[in-house]
């Protein structure tokens, strides 16, 4: 068998041992095979096997790597080649398997998406301002509570009037509901004073007179929207001043200042426990359609904090109180405070607002601080009357 039977043009780029004989049965070496080269062929050397996986070992043995666009369409696994193409000495011949000097780069493999660093949770408010305002309010409340009870009754009445103003203003701005503020403000202040002076009977009488005043006051305007305006007015009279009256009724007892203090401590501790635990461990939403920020873990924190504080406060601050009564009181306060917060969140979501006002930096408005206090007041008043009497 002569050399031309190998059917391959001279390959200047083949590397391998020169003392090996030709390998029979080899096919054409590349896609540019032409019979013109049959007379110029030489025996093909035996090429040592190339490991399938390259690496540092291939580089140490001097083995060249496959490259160039030729091997994208027609992979040639057995015989590594140089990057330099074979060229025929005749001027008219075209380069054999020519490799462009600047081949088009292969597209980069898709990189895995880099994980973003976890975002640091934000409190959503100016905590510095919120703490400062909270401390200031606490000083005012404590000073008025233990100096002269009548001064604290005035503080409750002022908070009621401001809360009514915020609520009625938001109703008119967002819904076009004109709940009459004047009879609500006068009746609300009277309700608080009547509850302190005459107890539950005085509070109910003042509530009835306030409702009547709202109905009559609205008659001075056109009848369009009368029903929705007076309905909103009656709701506001019950929601703000009537519920706040139970704080004044607690204050009327002999140890009333301590009862009010326990009520405030448990409500604040419940809110703080819900915020702290929910911010750190909160995962499962409590009521996502009403308040997306509240979590079930936060509710557990509110209950735990309030029950612990209740056991201590009732045991040491309330006459004839015991720790187990404090545990029960703390549990009920945590639930009522959470429901009150959700209730006001429902109102704000219906109105399309975040806060009821901007009077208190870091807190919002007065109503944003009364939301959990108002529904908790009658609960604490009732349980303390059951546990230790009306005083």
Question: Total number of β-strand segments?
Answer: 2
Which value, in Å, is the CA radius of gyration? 43 Å
* Largest sheet strand order: 1-2
- Treating each run of at least 4 consecutive H or I residues as one helix, how many helices? 11
Biggest sheet details: 2 strands, antiparallel
Low-confidence stretches: 1-38, 50-84, 93-99
Helix percent band? 55-70%
Helix-strand topology string: HHHHHHHEEHHHH
Gist?
The protein has helices at about 55-60, 70-75, 125-145, 150-175, 180-220, 225-250, 255-280, 295-315, 325-350, 365-370, 375-390, and strands spanning about 285, 290-295. With about 400 residues, it is mainly α.
How would you characterize this protein structure?
The protein is mainly α and 391 residues long. Helices cover 56% and strands 2% of the residues. The protein has helices at 56-60, 70-73, 127-147, 149-175, 181-218, 226-251, 256-281, 296-317, 323-351, 366-370, 373-388; strands at 285-287, 291-295. A two-stranded antiparallel sheet has the order 1-2. Strand 1 and strand 2 form a beta hairpin. Helix 3 packs across helix 4 and helix 5 (181-218) packs across helix 6. The chain is globular, with a radius of gyration of 43 Å. The termini are far apart. The model is unreliable at 1-38, 50-84 and 93-99 (pLDDT under 50).
